[in-house]
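A quick aside before the break. I want you to see a complete sequence-to-structure record at least once, exactly as it would be stored in a machine-readable document. Don't worry about memorizing anything.
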Amino acid sequence: MDLLIIAPNDFESIEKKSVLYQYENYREGGYFDNIISLFPFTKIDLTRKIDENKFFFHYGWKSKFHFLNNYKVMKFIGTIVLLFKILFVFPFVIKKHNIKIIRATDPYLNGLIGLYYSKLFKIPLAISVHSDYSLCNDAGGLTFKLFGSRKLAEKLEYFVYKRCDAILPISQYLINRIKFFYPYLKSDKFYKFSHGITTEEFDNIEYLDIYDKFNISRDVKLICYVARLSKEKNCLDIPFIVEKLSEKIQSFVVLIVGDGVERDSIQKMIIRKNLNQYVKFVGFQDKKVVFNARKLADVNICLLDGYSLIEAGLSQKPVVAYDVEWHSDLIINEHNGFLVNIHDTETFSEQIYNLLTKKDLANKFGRELRNFTIQNHEIENTQIIKQNIYTKIIEDYK
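That is the input. The structure line, written in C-alpha cells, reads:
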C-alpha cells in the first residue's frame, strides 16, 4: 500500500534544509510500502528515486533549453505544459503504484490537484494542515493568494476542505482555528495529526562541538534559534530581543540556524544597532548540527515554530517562545517554559535573562518540557495514532 503526498516543495530545498530523512517517517513504521511525492509548480522537471521506498516527481515551467527561458512567453507556455503534465501525465504514475490514500499538505492548489486525483481514481483525500494561514497573512508572510486575493484563496480553501475526506491539522490549536473560520465543516472530518520525532535518534546523534565549529567563545551563554528567516516566523523581532537582552547581560551569542528572505533585513538591523558581537548567522544546517545546537544551548528560543519546537523540547534545555499558534499545546507557561505575548520583545528578553541566571529553574523547565514532548511526540506513539487514522479514512471511503 502506497501514499501519495502533494506538497509545495522542491527537492533542492529539501536537501538544503536537510529534512529529507523526514520522508521516511511518512511511511509510518512500514504502514505504507512506498511514498510517492509530487511537487507541482516548481521551476524544473525532475524525477528522483531516493531508495526502494521513496520517489519524487517535480513538474516545472522552465525549458531544458535555457536560452528559451529568456523569453517571457515561455513562462506562459511552460505553465500550460506543466498543467498538462499534472492533469494527464502524472495519472499514469499513480496507476503504476498501489496508492490507497492521497495527502495534500495545503488546501489550495495542492489540495485542488489532490481532489482531482481523488475523484479520478476514487481514492480518499486528506488535507494536512501545518500552519495558521490567516495568521501568516496578517503577519505579512508568504501566504497563498489566488489571483492576488486572499479572499479568493479562502474560498478555495473552504471548497477543498468541504470536499476532501479528512482534515489533519498538526495541533488542537489548528483544529479550533479551522472550525472557527469554517463552522459548517463536519466535525468527524478532523483528526489531530501530531508530528513525530525519534527520541533515540535525537539523543544518540554524533556529538559535534558547536563552539568549535562556529568559533564561539566558551565564556558566553549560547542562545539558539532554528527556523526559516521569513516574516511570518516573527524573525524580524530578533534584533530587538538581542538589543534588550544586551542591556541586561553582555556575555551571550544568539546562534541563528536557518536562512530566508529576511536574512539581509535582520543583518542590516543588527549592524545598525551595533549588535554584531551578539549574533552569528550559520544558514541552514544538517540535523547533526541542529540537534547538537539545541542540546548545547543554554536557552532555546522559538518565535513561531513547527517541528523545530519539538526538537527544542527534546533538548532538555529551557525554551522561551511566543504564545502564538500551537506553541501552547506543548509549552505550559511557567511550568515547562515561558510563553510571551507576540512581539513583546522586552518581556521575551527578560525571560531569557531569567533562565540564563536561574540555573535551577532552567533545569526544571528543561526536564519537564522533555518529558511532555516525549509523551506527545515520540514517533512510536504518533505512528500508531496515524496508522489508525489512515485506516479509518480508507475504510470509511469504501
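Two observations worth writing down. The two ends are 15 Å apart (CA to CA). The chain is about 45% helix and 15% strand. We'll return to this after the break.
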